């Protein structure tokens, strides 16, 4: 109801305001039309030879009758003929004959102009006079002045029966036409202030009306009204209309009454429906109570069965936990087998080389091979420690690592496998250090796994190629690309124990371990197929911030 009252009040108020504006447009048109019609009358009378002859001869015996006839024809308020001294020599009101208007504005200004002059004169008794005056001449000689008063008071009488209050102000903001007689000669602000003090009852009723309606533009007779203004295209005049909110309130109240009636009917239907629903629910509850008693008996029996099942479930959970431990042990064993294959193969190669060097009595070179074997043994120990950490997700000591050194170290570890095959390896590394925070051994382990996968993927390729690209921007990105057949199933690529190799050639844990290491280092390992063929692996790691890089590392 509040929303309806506000919306309808605004809508009906706007409609009333639009109607008032249309009414003011009609009033303005009628007023302008009357003024334009009256402005022609002095010109026509000034060309009347009878008036000119009477002024020249001084014989005015028939002049007043002629002016009365002209007034009736044009519906003017009055017509007066003045001689050069300003004395009335003929008039439609014979009582004015002999009256002097020597200082009147319509007489003085008419003598100064050769055109029709419009003037207004405020009269205390009759209101405002609207006069059109014109100088009468004969052969260029002034003879007198003809004054025609426009009857605009008839509009006041017409407006009084339609609108609450209408006023016309001149360019000085003085009221010259109005349906309220006491407003004449006042400004609009003064006219609105001139009202009787309201009683207590009137103030209470007005407060109620102001709350129900929009804020009033003004108060008229103690009641709030809306004010509508329009400009009259004549000498800066303006017409103002005041309309009460009674019609708006009546229309809004009619709609609100219908709304209240509908709401009351809705409430009655709602109460009836709720009472009927309550009865139905009562019957339903009785039926449910009966069913619940039967259900309670069944639940008692099921509780005993569930307790027995829970005991069996506890035994099954213990069995499942033991199976999970065995599966984890098998996964770790497979991981150890996979990660130790590479160092063992390299050690075998270095031992064979050292044996040949000793047979040729080249001991110093053989010591180099033994040193490499010792490094590989250390690496195998580190791998076993890393695999334990991988199994239990433990922490590892991190340090600043230059990715360029890690790539070079991984290539050195893969040297025996690379020499056993003819593979074109392209390595593109930046000149500046690419520093990341990582465990060097685990980082090299990832690079070795990527290189080994690339070697295995290019076994059946006629001209095998492996490209290693290292770049740094927002992140450090290591890309390993081969020209092999590509990856058949990208979704399962990083799953443990999934491999495309033949049984005995791979465990399917290399990429799974590498992906886990990349995540531990705060990076990510991704794979995709190249457009030109082959697989592309990208290792993305966060760069080491400049604040944590020491001067020695920069050097």
UniProtKB/TrEMBL annotation:
It catalyses: ATP + protein L-histidine = ADP + protein N-phospho-L-histidine. Residues 282-326 form a coiled coil. It is an enzyme of class 2 (transferase). Its EC number is 2.7.13.3. Residues 335-545 form the Histidine kinase domain. Pfam families: HATPase_c, HisKA. Gene3D superfamilies: 1.10.287.130, Histidine kinase-like ATPase, C-terminal domain, PAS domain. It is found in: Cell membrane. SUPFAM superfamilies: ATPase domain of HSP90 chaperone/DNA topoisomerase II/histidine kinase, Homodimeric domain of signal transducing histidine kinase, Sensory domain-like. Its main location: membrane. The chain crosses the membrane at residues 254-274. It is a multi-pass membrane protein. InterPro entries: HATPase_C_sf, HATPase_dom, His_kinase_dom, HisK_dim/P_dom, HisK_dim/P_sf, Sensor-like_sf, Sig_transdc_His_kin-like_C, Sig_transdc_His_kinase_DctB. PROSITE patterns: HIS_KIN (PS50109). Keywords: ATP-binding, Cell membrane, Coiled coil, Kinase, Membrane, Nucleotide-binding, Phosphoprotein, Transferase, Transmembrane, Transmembrane helix, Two-component regulatory system. GO terms for molecular function: ATP binding. PANTHER family: C4-DICARBOXYLATE TRANSPORT SENSOR PROTEIN DCTB (PTHR43065:SF46), SENSOR HISTIDINE KINASE (PTHR43065). This is histidine kinase. It comes from Thioclava kandeliae. The lineage of its organism: Bacteria, Pseudomonadati, Pseudomonadota, Alphaproteobacteria, Rhodobacterales.
